Amino acid sequence: MTSDFNTEKTRAATWFRTLRDEIVAAFEAVEDSQPADAAAGRFDVTETKRASDDGADAGGGLMSVMRGGRVFEKVGVNVSTVYGQLGAQAQKAMAARGVPGMDTDPRFWASGISLVAHMQNPHVPAVHMNTRMFWTPHAWWFGGGSDLNPCIEYDEDTAHFHAQQAQHLAPHGTGLYEELKAWADEYFYIPHRNRARGVGGIFMDDRNTGDWEADFALTQDIGRAFLPAYLPLVEKRRMQPWNDADKDAQLVHRGLYAEYNLVYDRGTKFGLATGHDANAVLMSLPPLAKWV
After folding, report:
1. 92 within 8 A of 127, measured Cβ to Cβ
2. DSSP strand pairing (72-85 vs 139-149)
3. Is residue 112 within 8 Å of residue 79, measured between CB atoms?
4. Which residues are bridge partners to 131 per DSSP?
5. I need a surface site. Which of 8, 77, 133, 134 has the fewest CB within 10 A?
6. pLDDT tens-digit readout, 221-233
């Protein structure tokens, strides 16, 4: 692999931004479709910057957050493209994962989209989606996936979400959905609670088969699966009646989500360790949560 990967970087970053725009538009359309008992939610968009030690341009992105909507209590759809030199802590972490060249050339480039939605109605599941590309002069890979996090579980909702993942992964190889589902089950597990944080989905990391086009196509289809997997569940549950006990269950479940993201999530750790905007990195945390 050579360091001349500019075309591929541009294509990946453009795709993540396009997916971001599609999701933001779709979520605002959901807000517009609700009964007009309150103003429809809109995303507040803020430019983010990665801080570098020497003050050089290190990239950034867009943090798009909607708070207090009719359907979405808090949802963030962030996109970023950052680059520069990895610090000592990040170099050590990358080397431990088998990334070559960290001791001689710690330059990096990373681009991706990250989404987390926390809903007003406890019957509507929370959801997470992320896809990304990472590059160094000696390696490149893709990662990401999506997982469903209901506080009140419905078997048919789980089945629909997983069926869409399987459908979009099917063109990329027999057994791939099963592989990435098992990876998600392992990755989104909370050891100190002895339970998963939700009902799973798909996840991959360090995806480099040697065929950049094939791996990029897979990453795109993981992103394309998101809206058809999730929006029908929002439409089905958004008007379902709920009570105080349902809301209490939702807040307790959000505590699990917060614990996982702060203690185990690799993306959170990497974002904070490499100087990315802390508010953007911690966008995934719920607006309210509780612990029993």
Report:
1. no
2. unpaired
3. yes
4. 113, 144
5. 8
6. 999 999 999 999 9
Residue 192 designated active-site: no
Give the 3-state secondary structure of residue 141. Answer: strand
Please report, to the nearest 10 degrees, the dihedral formed by the alpha carbons of residues 257, 259, 261, 263 taken in order.
-160
pLDDT in tens, 115-135: 999 999 999 999 999 999 999
Q: How far is CA 163 from CA 8, 159, 178, in A?
A: 30, 6, 11
Residue 77 C-alpha from the chain's centroid: 8
User: Looking at 118, 123, 128, 253, which residue is catalytic?
Assistant: 128
The whole-angstrom separation of Cα 164 and Cα 127 is: 14
Q: 78 phi and psi, to 5 degrees? A: -105, 145
Spatial distance between the Cα atoms of 198 and 122, rounded to a whole number of angstroms: 14
pTM of the model: 0.92
Q: How far apart are CA 170 and CA 179, in angstroms?
A: 12
